[in-house]
Amino acid sequence: MKLEHLLLGVLGMRPSTGYDLKKFFDTSGRYLRSNTQMSQVYRVLHRMADQGWVTYDVEPRQGAQDAKTYRVTPEGMTVFLDWLTGPYLPPFRARDPEFTARLSFCGFMTEEQLLRIVDAELAARRDQLIQLHDHERTIVSEAGYSFDVELAVAVTGRLAEWGSDDVERHIQRLERLREDILAGRLRNQA
Amino acid sequence: MKLEHLLLGVLGMRPSTGYDLKKFFDTSGRYLRSNTQMSQVYRVLHRMADQGWVTYDVEPRQGAQDAKTYRVTPEGMTVFLDWLTGPYLPPFRARDPEFTARLSFCGFMTEEQLLRIVDAELAARRDQLIQLHDHERTIVSEAGYSFDVELAVAVTGRLAEWGSDDVERHIQRLERLREDILAGRLRNQA
DNA sequence: GCGACCCATTCCACTAGTGCCATGGTCCTG
DNA sequence: CAGGACCATGGCACTAGTGGAATGGGTCGC
User: Is residue A63 within 8 Å of residue B6, measured between CB atoms?
Assistant: First the structure.
């Protein structure tokens, strides 16, 4: 998930300055991408402007740097939609934000496109759950450094438990979401 | 969380070849780091060998490339332990693997060091939960591209719900783990 | 006896991201 | 009236990671 696409998505909802974008990723967008650097935002913005994916209006500010309000061009929107509605390959770890990122831009999708993504995610996580079960792990330290095997076994056992619980829970949520989309239950609700 | 540290941790448990390490991150270590490239593993291994953090024994294989079995040196172990037991700054997103990574190497820690990490994580997530509640988000599309506001509101609402449920659940697990460590319940169990 | 897959290392060009700092303004607060 | 937060842009050196391919075995099954 490139910063590029996230920026296009955010700008697609609301034209912003580089500063606004940075602020967004520090606050409500933090679950999409954390630790976003100023420099990175501006660098990507410059590149996208060169490629014609975004344009900006300059608001002159006497003395200080001008403020540039960026907006997505039709070409940029095409690039963004190609990513958003293009093939979704669920990442190996259910927790990384690929899926969440796409869902948070679901306003740009049709319900059919959304369903395709949800279905792909669901299939991947069901597979994953099966593989988690027939997976034994042994912990042995052979390297001669001080290592508390008993503690390691107990804690990693718990981590594995947490992991598969999370996947199960995620699957249940996806099933519920899927049904709600199909039944039109996402319409006309608070 | 640098690949460096993960490699040192894994090698600290079991000396391995570069290939073994890559395989590990593709299978049981996949929750620590996904999509690990061969080239990256070998590059980091070379650098660490230069710095004296690891050494290797060469097993000659006639015709083909020699196989090198890497192991951690005392200096490397020091570097690793400095990271592992050094200050833990919980990442903004509860889901990224910093915490999990440290816990999976808990065999190298004392129970006190483990507790410090768990406590830091717990404090961070409790703060986060408070901030999640007084956080209103409004979704408006002002950019003129086709945008289904109703769908977006419904789905992002659900995402937010999922997110805060996850944090709550994570906190409960941490509390339970904390108590179990303190009560010595991680000892002598299956 | 060949294709597929495993073992094992290395190189190369490239892209993305980090961390830190400089500039220069406004507005608020104690 | 100083200090800090906020607004806004940008430069620089650096590090880490991606993606792909070349090399050259070995083993297993069909």
Answer: no
